[in-house]
């Protein structure tokens, strides 16, 4: 078997699990979060993550409050964070907070912040 790469960089994408969204809607919100956080990340983090293969982990949060708490902790640690609010054109009301993107950042730092969350 080939060696499993040791990813030192990743993005964590967190979607709310307490609101009803179709699978496609969740995917779109997660994609928005990934781009938003990437754009806020510093050049070195983006390059290292990109060169390593762009690892992403998708997690779920139980509330809007939990997303904002994680965002605050991440920003205090110097991690790029992007909260996503929906435009309300399809499934959910306008302004609904749906997702949070973190990083790219060092995997061990993100693990300390998001390690208690479940995979989507």
UniProtKB/TrEMBL annotation:
> In the record, what terms sit under GO molecular function?
peptidyl-tRNA hydrolase activity
One family name in Pfam for this protein: PTH2
InterPro entries linked: Pep_tRNA_hydro_II_dom_sf (IPR023476), PTH2 (IPR002833)
Top-rank taxon: Archaea
Q: What is its EC number?
A: 3.1.1.29
One GO term describing the cellular component: cytosol
Q: Which reaction does it catalyse?
A: an N-acyl-L-alpha-aminoacyl-tRNA + H2O = an N-acyl-L-amino acid + a tRNA + H(+)
Keywords for the protein's UniProt record, in alphabetical order:
Hydrolase
Task: Tell whether Membrane is among the UniProt keywords.
Answer: no
Protein family according to the UniProt entry: Belongs to the PTH2 family.
Protein's job: The natural substrate for this enzyme may be peptidyl-tRNAs which drop off the ribosome during protein synthesis.
Q: What is this protein called?
A: Peptidyl-tRNA hydrolase
What species is this protein from? Methanoculleus taiwanensis
């Amino acid at each position: 078997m080939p060696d499993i790469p040791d990813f030192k960089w990743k993005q964590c994408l967190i979607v709310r699990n307490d609101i009803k969204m179709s699978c496609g809607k969740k995917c779109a919100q997660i994609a928005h979060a990934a781009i938003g956080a990437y754009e806020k990340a510093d050049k070195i983090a983006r390059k290292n993550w990109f060169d390593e293969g762009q690892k992403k982990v998708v997690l779920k949060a139980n509330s809007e409050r939990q997303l904002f708490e994680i965002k605050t902790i991440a920003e205090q640690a110097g991690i790029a964070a992007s909260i996503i609010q929906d435009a309300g054109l399809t499934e959910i009301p306008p302004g609904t907070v749906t997702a949070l993107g973190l990083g790219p950042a060092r995997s061990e730092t993100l693990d300390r912040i998001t390690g208690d969350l479940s995979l989507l």
